[in-house]
Amino acid sequence: MPLVSMKPVLREAMEQGYAVAAFNLLDFGTTKAMIRAAEELNAPVIIQASTKTIKYFSHKEVYSWVATLAEDSPVPVVLHLDHCKDLEVIRKCLDTGWTSVMVDASELPFEENLALSRQVVEMAAKKGVHVEAEIGQIMGVEDDMVVAEDESHLTDPAEAERFCKELDLAAFAAAIGSAHGYYKGVPKIAFDLIKEINGRTKTPMALHGGTGLDEATIAQCIANGCAKINISTNLKHVFIESFLDYNKAKPNDFEPLRYIDAQYQACKALFKSKIAEFGGTNRAAELLAKAA
Ligand SMILES: [Zn+2]
Question: Domains of the chain by range and CATH?
Fold first, then answer.
């Protein structure tokens, strides 16, 4: 089916108490593995790309992979631009047919962030697309931008409420203690803050830094209002390690397709485990019935 927009998918997830997995694609093979994993579980899936990935391939190339695979698939697939502050990149993606975009102006003061995010919301609305936006900077490394723990401040719930009231977002990303990359110590997730923000904004929260959070933590994030969970770091590791492991096991095999397949199977297994863990299994049909 054609790509779907993110807002109704996440609203439904929030209402039903599950989260939709959002994976950062790396190439065509990982994209295909995401869609097959979703199909095998009859689940919705969000396929996203970082600005860095789009700059390496192109917004058109990435769109063609995802749209082609989604076209022949019975499950709802969202194509989402992850963390972006470049309005030109956002505009190109919207013009090409991407069904969701994130504007990340979180390093700016509140009013400037709101103004820039509003500009993107208005641009996206012309294409029938809703936006993910962020306030409070999330710790860790994203697209080579480092936010240290002491620079990161948790999102202010009153600001979150005003921001979401003015923007009517598909998803709201907040600094609630999670981090991009691997966690060094035990992550300190502010569950009460997630709950308070979600209660005030009534907007599905996007949990950034899903890699390395244990099942109990994930379950509590979902119970308190997270409806989109991003997985990127975990995939990067599985992607590289599965390739290397195959070579270690079969050092004399120079048939690339067998390497690619080993990588594909490992990535698909990761996607299936995350989709299932976040409660996405068997949600596709229900979602589509409501959308029809
Ligand atoms: Zn992120």
Answer: 6-286 (3.20.20.70)
